[in-house]
Design a protein that fits this description.
This protein is mainly α and about 100 residues long. About 60% of the residues lie in helices and about 0% in strands. The chain has six helices and no strands. The relative contact order is 0.07.
């Protein structure tokens, strides 16, 4: 776990999150942290649990996104929240019609 990017000491992070120094010692010796503690740490550093653990496999790979998907995403991101809700309602109606 590389905490130098955030510019803090790991012991200070543990104190701030209410984690014991015993946890840190066990983790350094290979014991896997609990899901709750992994989530606390990933939230603190603003990264996913996978990134925190150094996992290289991600379920979503931007390279697999089609050009059409990118265009849809770009257009949706430019809309207000109210307009996004309207588009979602319309999409749901269209999907229902296509299923019948």
């Amino acid at each position: 776990m590389n905490v130098t990017k955030k510019g803090v000491k790991l012991t200070n992070v543990f104190k701030e999150l209410g984690l014991s120094s015993g946890n840190m010692s066990r983790w350094k010796n290979g014991v896997t942290p609990s899901a709750v503690n992994l989530k606390k740490l990933s939230d603190y550093f603003g990264i996913s649990v996978d990134d925190l653990l150094g996992n290289k496999v991600h379920l979503k790979d931007e390279r697999l996104e089609s050009e059409q998907d990118k265009e849809i995403k770009t257009k949706l991101n430019s809309l207000s929240e109210k307009d996004k809700e309207l588009v979602l309602d319309l999409m749901n109606c269209v999907c229902c019609l296509l299923l019948f």
